Amino acid sequence: MKRHPTLHPLSEEHHHGLVLCLRLRKLAIDDPAAAETMLQEAWKSELQDHFRLEDDILLPEMALASTVNHPDIVRTCTDHVMLRLLIRRIARAPLNEKAPLLVAFADCLEEHIRFEERILFCTAESLLGEEGLSRLGFVSRFEGENSH
Fold it and tell me: Could you tell me the pTM of the whole model?
């Protein structure tokens, strides 16, 4: 699917997220402690910032172009809250209860990523158009990270 260049970095991070989901599912059953460590590292290094970019930049711009109650915006925000909630539940759960929560996180994240790729980004392209997407500034953020 051809994406606007501004959304490419987010789509690349989605790919990393899908790989994380596969790895989490496999590791959660055999070694939930290692799976949790892997998830926490991914959360701190990539997922948390990814959600912030969407929550702080993409979704407000989409709301300006439509409405804050747009179903795709509401779904994205709800998904983000659910994933943050699962992170907290995993951290607080006893070791013998972590595996199903880790699998639930992987399932929720995969579904969320597929929703964003198939629906949210198409909606963003439609609502914001070339000019609006170019204003978002995701590309410059990612280029700054890659130049170090």
Answer: 0.90
